[in-house]
Design a protein that fits this description.
alpha+beta, 7-stranded mixed sheet, binds adenosine-5'-diphosphate, binds magnesium ion
């Protein structure tokens, strides 16, 4: 524990460092900027920048960068050194307030969905003072937002900050109505649990599919998979333990609260969970975690796979976004509390979330949509693509009692009345058992479980924050206009449950019957990315985002285009990689095996004409027939890509074509190829196989 204490946040310019290094007045002014979002004037910025620079240089930094999160899913940085030449040919180390606050990366190649014409291609980065600067690889990293000169968000952080602002505004309105005059700001909190795979680097380097696409595009099942569940929480192998130890330490230095590391269900699969923190910091930290996982794995001769579905037939990787709302006075608004008053407030916030999830199922689905995640959702390893809320029996029964004006439990003789009665204490254990729900209440927070492992968590939280802000604003409107607070509150809760009860589902989300049941309830089942993306630009969704100033309509349209384009690009790379592997490695390998078989037959017959060649001839026939089939499937896949060139598709049609036609041809090709693998002499297979990859790390 001592080591954690001594290294924790040692590379972060956090509050303690600021207090230590900034003049009192500067510190105070900076705090006002951080806590209240006040403008930071240049003189103050200069002092802060200078202190940051001195601190960073003492820690061995030579460069600084504005660290931002463009629409690519990774983070971006452009390094500048602190060096400024002097007249006498020497250098001094400088870093000004202006350089701290604003940057102009020449970042014209990041996707902008047409928001920037090339003549005004430069966007600018602006310091997010609410997220601490840190040192990574000898570089002082300044967390920033990335915008166009017109002020349009070109990144994932700007809208996240706006959505936090939106939920802050509406929550404060509601809290005031409950008589709270103390709380001055609320923030949503997030703890994202991150799954990943580790494979041997030497083997990774031999697989073009892993190199180019992050997942295996071919590969027959190994004799053993995850069926014994013996990897889950199993003993961690020495090399993996060494990786985890270094990862934890490096994360701690950056102030990331990495807490638990364990093995997951699939062989070679692991998970890291941090302690929760404010949403924008949790987002920065999750990006850093993913980056460090990949970098540190390499140092241990491993590769960290963050793809949602690296291997067919074994579980893929996701991310659980644990989410709640917390006040600056330290109260968790999704904690039921102990008094009837606290309970009433809790129920209203609970209803706000239920309504938000029901009204914006489509946006929540979109927030986790990616080509990779399409392989997981609904495949009995992750929640279905249908969004629903799990509350647990106890809480559901209470809500039903309120809805129907019935009595709850055996002890209560009276009807359960909001604001009058005390809720029973919900045990976390009682509420957390259902692992199949996409959106589960787990005692004092919600766990959104549909996210893909490589996703930035910003998208999901932008939607959650904004949708809940919308419910809260409607509730606040109703309560502000009412003369009878408790009566209106009770009615609001009742009517919300009545209207949105269809979204509550406590059963098994993996059960096929749920699909039919959900359809009956009128819930959306948007299976693939091209299925759900068109909902992004629906009027009700555009209205939501613009009303709460999270996205402008232009920004939504730009994002919609980027997401579609990205989907098509990923499928195209996958298809082309498959063709490359089939044509250059796999077909030649299987054909060589066929040749060996036929040479064996000839040699055996020459040696002894009556020798039994059943195996060789039968296998030769089988392999040759399958090779013919595989060749035709390869041609068919190639044709789907060639046909596309002649089509005059818009972005949506193109994505749909990839999802339907191209993906179908890929699946067909894989089926034959994997069958061939399973009947071919191992020594002919040109790549490390599933067994090697999944059980190779020792
Ligand atoms: P487990 O799911 O393993 O039983 P927990 O439910 O305690 O563990 O925590 C899972 C994740 O939820 C952790 O990352 C934790 O920090 C996070 N978490 C706990 N409370 C909150 C909260 N109020 N807001 C956001 N995340 C939270
Ligand atoms: Mg959990």
């Amino acid at each position: 524990m001592d080591t954690i204490k001594s290294v924790f946040a040692e590379n972060v310019f956090n509050d303690t460092v600021m207090k230590e290094r900034l003049p009192k007045e500067t510190y105070k002014q900076l705090q006002r900027t951080i806590k209240e979002g006040r403008h930071l004037d240049n003189a103050v910025a200069n002092v802060v920048a200078n202190a940051m620079k001195d601190w960073a240089i003492e820690k061995g930094a030579t460069h600084f960068t504005h660290w931002f999160q463009p629409m690519t899913g990774v983070t971006a940085e452009k390094h500048d050194s602190f060096i400024t030449p002097t007249d006498d040919g020497r250098v001094i180390l400088e870093f000004s307030g202006k350089e701290l606050i604003q940057g102009e990366p020449d970042a014209s190649s990041f996707p902008s969905g047409g928001l920037r014409a090339t003549f005004e291609a430069r966007g600018y980065t602006a310091w997010d003072a609410t997220s601490y600067a840190f040192i990574k690889e000898k570089t002082l990293c300044i967390p920033t937002a990335f915008c166009s000169y017109g002020g349009e968000a070109l990144d994932k952080k700007t809208p996240l900050l706006r959505s936090m602002e939106a939920i802050n505004r509406q929550t404060l309105r509601v809290l005031r109505l409950f008589g709270d005059t103390e709380v001055t700001s609320v923030k949503t909190t997030v703890g994202p649990e991150q799954e990943y795979f580790l494979v041997e680097k030497e083997m990774f380097d031999k697989r073009p599919d892993l190199i180019y696409t992050g997942r295996t595009l071919f590969g027959a099942k190994s004799p053993k998979g995850q069926e014994l569940d013996d990897h889950y929480f199993g003993t961690i192998k020495t090399r993996v333990a060494a990786f985890m130890e270094e990862l934890d330490e490096e994360l701690w230095k950056l102030g990331v609260l990495a807490k638990t590391e364990h093995n997951e269900v699939a062989p070679a699969q692991h998970e890291l969970a941090p302690v929760f923190t404010t949403t924008n910091i949790a987002t920065d930290h999750n990006q850093l975690t993913m980056e460090l996982m990949q970098r540190i794995a390499k140092k241990h001769g491993l590769v960290c796979l963050l793809h949602e579905k690296p291997f067919a037939g074994v579980n893929g990787s996701g991310k659980h976004n644990n989410w709640s709302i917390s006040t600056n006075t330290g109260k968790n608004l999704l904690d039921p509390g102990d008094t009837p008053h606290e309970n009433a407030q809790f129920l209203l916030f609970l209803c706000a979330v239920i309504q938000a999830v029901d009204d914006y199922q489509d946006l929540l689905r979109i927030s986790v949509a990616s080509a990779g995640n399409d392989h997981r959702l609904g495949a009995n390893e992750a929640p279905p693509a249908i969004v629903s809320v799990f509350l647990g029996t106890e809480l559901t029964e209470i809500l039903e009692a309120i809805e129907k004006d019935e009595q709850y439990g055996t002890k209560e003789k009276e009807l359960w009345k909001v604001g009058v009665h005390t809720l029973p204490r919900f045990q976390k254990d009682a509420t957390d058992r259902n692992r199949t729900s996409p959106f589960a209440f787990t005692g004092n927070k919600f766990e959104f479980r549909m996210l893909g492992s490589s996703d930035s968590i910003s998208g999901a939280n932008i939607v959650l924050n904004t949708a809940v802000a919308e419910s809260l604003s409607q509730f606040a409107d109703a309560l502000e206009q009412s003369a009878d607070f408790n009566g209106t509150l009770h009615d609001l809760i009742r009517s919300t449950i009545k209207k949105h009860r269809r979204i509550i589902f406590n059963g098994n989300g993996y059960d096929e019957k749920w699909v039919a049941e959900a359809e009956k309830r009128g819930l959306l089942n948007l299976r693939t990315t091209p299925d759900c993306l068109p909902y992004f630009i629906k009027e009700k969704n555009v209205d939501l985002f613009t009303r709460h100033k999270v996205f402008s309509e232009t920004e939504i349209r730009a994002r919609y285009e980027i997401l579609l384009e990205n989907y098509s690009k990923i499928l195209n790379i996958e298809a082309v990689t498959m063709l490359d592997m089939a044509n250059k490695d796999l077909l030649p390998a299987y054909s060589a095996y066929a040749r060996q078989l036929s040479e064996t037959v000839n040699a055996k017959k020459a040696a002894a004409p009556d020798v039994d060649c059943t195996f060789e001839t039968e296998r030769l026939r089988q392999v040759s027939a399958l090779c013919g089939d595989m060749y035709r499937k390869t041609q068919a896949l190639e044709d789907t890509l060639l046909n596309l060139v002649q089509k005059d598709f818009g972005e949506l049609e193109r994505a749909q074509y990839y999802q339907g036609t191209v993906f179908h041809a890929m699946t067909e090709l894989r089926i034959v190829a994997d069958e061939l693998e399973s009947v071919t002499d191992r020594s002919f297979y040109p790549y490390p196989n599933y067994g090697d990859l999944l059980f190779g790390v020792r």
